[in-house]
Amino acid sequence: MNYIGSKLSLLKFLEESINKVVDKDCDTFCDLFAGTGIVGSYFKKKDYKIIANDIQYYSYVLNRHYIGNHKELNFVKLIIEIPDLKNIDVRNRKTFVCNHLSDIKQLIKRISDFRDARDWKQFHNPKDCAISLALEAAEVLEHFQWKNPEEIKKYVETNKDEVSEELADVLYWVLLMSGDLNIDIVKAFDKKMLKNAKKYPVNKAKGKHTKYNKL
Ligand SMILES: C[S@@+](CC[C@H](N)C(=O)[O-])C[C@H]1O[C@@H](n2cnc3c(N)ncnc32)[C@H](O)[C@@H]1O
């Protein structure tokens, strides 16, 4: 949570200033008027025992979570899907799971496991996959068809989940095709972005939607 008055951007300065004056053996940090709990949770990570107070209930909830909650998530049920999790210390599991779930190779594996469990590979030749990719992209378009800019703005705000699903479907086919065609999609993306940067140099393209060959 962020709001005017949060000390988020002052944390380093606070730490340096406090370190200049407090005793090295001091092990307790008092976060009075704790608000978002951003200060206490920062110093909790530095191994201080934290005492926090605030008159507001929102702050109590945040501080129960950031300061009072010492439970680590085990992700036990995910061990079947991610066997490597067994070898990860419980304290590092949350980061490991987040990285795992957003790792492109793992996403491709997840898609191909999903497909293999349904025996759908037999239908997935490049032509039909490309058709499916184009169809899903068209479903993204469908959300905006016949709407004026004002209606689109409102629509996106109230239908974010639906639009997200269509984008996820497009990503599904992009990743599935890249896996099947043995294309390193991260490398390909990087290469294409460098190419785009050359095609559309900032000094020529800034603020214009002109095609590169007409710049
Ligand atoms: C500027 S905010 C705290 C900022 C906080 N350090 C942060 O970075 O999020 C001030 C907080 O003081 C709390 N507060 C105001 N008067 C209080 C009082 N008499 N007793 C306890 N908390 C109080 C407010 O509820 C508010 O959350």
Care to describe what's here?
By secondary structure, the protein is mainly alpha-helical. The chain has three domains: 8-68, no CATH class; 72-102, no CATH class; 106-214, MazG-like (Helix Hairpins, Orthogonal Bundle), CATH 1.10.287. The chain is built from ten helices and two strands, in the order H-E-H-E-H-H-H-H-H-H-H-H. It has a two-stranded parallel sheet. Helix 2 (38-44) links the parallel strand 1 (28-31) and strand 2. The longest helix has 21 residues, at 160-180. It is extended and about 70 Å long. It binds S-adenosylmethionine. Residues 5-7, 33-36, 38-39, 53-56, 59 line the site of S-adenosylmethionine.
- Mean pLDDT over all positions: 93
Task: Give the C-alpha Rg.
Answer: 25 Å
CATH class descriptor name of the largest domain: Mainly Alpha
Oligomer: single chain
Structural class by helix and strand composition: mainly alpha
**How far is the N terminus from the C terminus?**
43 Å
Q: What string gives the helices and strands in order?
A: HEHEHHHHHHHH
Percent strand:
under 5%
Give the helix tally: 10
Give the strand order of the largest sheet, numbering strands 1, 2, ... along the chain.
1-2
The name of the CATH superfamily of the largest domain reads: MazG-like
List the main descriptive attributes of the protein structure presented here.
215 residues, mainly alpha, Helix Hairpins, 3 domains, two-stranded parallel ribbon, 10 helices, 2 strands, extended, binds S-adenosylmethionine
